[in-house]
Predict the 3D structure of the following.
Amino acid sequence: MAITTATPAAPSPSTGTAAPRLWASLGSPLGELLLVGVESATAPGGTALVSLSLPGQKGAATVQEGWRHEPAAFTEIAAQLAAYFDGRLTRFAVEYADEGTDFQRRVWRAVDAVPHGTTTTYGEIARRIGASGAAVRAVGTAIGRNPLLVVRPCHRIVGADGGLRGYAAGLERKEHLLVLEGAPVS
């Protein structure tokens, strides 16, 4: 089965109000995932992913008043996550809401391009987006603000020496994902 990478959701018409958020929780080998999304006519399964976070994650989403608990809206995304954790999926076909600053989106696109089972460095991501060597810290900050853990593979970004560095959900989870993918871990 050919699976394509996560892609941004098509912009929705401006109505002056944000689309209502949908949410669900899903068990995983990393702990209980919180999935947050918005309805999308173009997304597989009808939901564009806004956030995927874990308990204890720095900057994790929390369910807000007015959000609708809609587990069925995440059936397709949950199936892909289950296949990933079972080792049967190497690339997600998930539409996601394109939020963040221009710089963050440039960094996140570069992160999206890192293949399953491989790693690259923060410096290499900076180079890929045309940022100076001095921008490595800003690249790291943008990666740390990735709202789509697991789906957008920020776990594949390591230090210049190959060592595990910063992961909003904890280095043990970063290592778990790299081992799952068969990527080198130092």
In short: The helical segments are 75-85, 102-112, 122-128, 136-144, 171-181. Residues 22-86 form one domain.
